[in-house]
Design a protein that fits this description.
- The protein has 16 helices and no strands.
- The protein has 347 residues and is an all-alpha fold.
- The protein has a single domain, classed as Na+/H+ antiporter like fold.
- It is globular and about 70 Å long.
């Protein structure tokens, strides 16, 4: 797929964010309502899209092997990048005891202002440390579910196996996000959740879809009414995803997106460095072309929204998380088509 075609598809996807942006800016919808829309996307739309994709393909050892490769490769590459970034920036992370004290006093994420010079320095250092924690997560984990899956659906409508592979990728990202991702962002092991890492909508969807896949159940063998219901919910995924993203843009001062160099670094690593490394690693390996393409595209997705969700839940840096997600999404309009140019090398 050439640069122009890919760019148009990415722009079409991003254009779907405009209604969400306008709804928040005109105050027809309050920013506090965004999590409710996200719940519909997470628990309804995306699972049905993944299920729909599984029902479009027939069981084959090729696709099964591709799913196994996706699981192994996505774990190894994401974990490898995460550990490298953690080793580089861990010395800059904030102290948990100091952070807890400052938050209790209202100096972080609050309205209280310090006057003492030493206290001011402590607040500044703590804020920087929290930002570095967010940057490690932003650089590693991509928006593979809410952005990657709809994009693959647009780019390869005749290759549903791409979404099947991406469903496995989403599961591995969630597993690492709820474990090492939560730990680094919060700095506290008690927030790591094995239960949430293993029991979440993408994983539960696989538990439903895989038996049907192995049994050879496809849309052709299902009642037309059931196929329609699955299709209606699955087709909502891309518009709903982008409307929510538009709402996040509308709720965030756009000027703040461009003032922190850490957001540019995270975006550069996530959008260019990581996918290029994945591309180079996969190049000599004799794998199915669509599998390679899917893995590279998944690695090229903008920063994951779950970083912001974790920051909101566990006292992480919400500002850096939100700005990194939005900036990387803007930049991906250019970088994803560039990465697609590389993929023409795969035969």
């Amino acid at each position: 797929m050439d640069f122009k075609t890919t760019a148009i598809n990415v722009l079409v996807l991003v254009a779907l964010a405009i209604p969400g942006f306008l709804l928040v800016k005109t105050k027809l919808i309050k920013a506090g309502a965004i999590p409710f829309f996200s719940a519909v996307l997470l628990y309804v739309c995306q699972p049905f899209l993944s299920l729909q994709s599984f029902l479009k393909v027939e069981y084959s050892t090729r696709i099964l092997a591709g799913m196994g490769w996706t699981f192994l490769f996505s774990v190894v590459t994401q974990l490898g990048l995460f550990l490298v970034l953690w080793a580089i920036f861990k010395s800059k992370f904030n102290d948990l005891e100091i952070t807890s004290h400052l938050m209790e006093e209202g100096y972080l994420d609050g309205d209280k202002v310090a006057t003492d010079p030493l206290l001011k320095k402590q607040i500044t250092d703590t804020a920087k440390g929290r930002a570095y924690r967010a940057m490690v997560n932003l650089s590693t984990f991509g928006n593979v579910g809410f952005f990657g899956v709809p994009l693959l659906t647009l780019l390869f409508p005749l290759n549903p196996e791409a979404v099947v592979y991406s469903a496995v990728y989403v599961c591995t990202m969630n597993m690492m996000g709820w474990s090492i991702g939560v730990y680094v962002l919060s700095g506290n092991k008690k927030f790591m959740s094995v239960k949430k890492a293993l029991i979440n909508p993408p994983t539960l969807t696989l538990l439903v879809a895989l038996p049907l896949f192995f049994a050879g159940v496809t849309m052709k063998s299902m009642p037309a009414e059931v196929v329609k219901i699955i299709g209606y919910f699955g087709d909502m995924t891309a518009p709903m995803c982008m409307i929510i993203l538009g709402m996040r843009f509308g709720a965030q001062p756009l000027k703040s997106l461009f003032t922190d160099w850490r957001n540019y670094l995270a975006s550069g690593v996530k959008l260019l460095v990581f996918p290029i490394l994945v591309f180079l690693i996969l190049w000599p390996i004799p794998l199915d072309r669509m599998l390679k393409v899917t893995l590279v595209i998944m690695s090229a997705m903008p920063c994951a929204t779950n970083t912001l969700n974790f920051a909101e839940l566990y006292g992480g840096d919400k500002k850096t998380s939100a700005n990194g997600i939005l900036l990387s999404t803007l930049l991906s309009i250019l970088t994803i088509p560039l990465i697609m140019l590389l993929l023409s090398v795969y035969k």
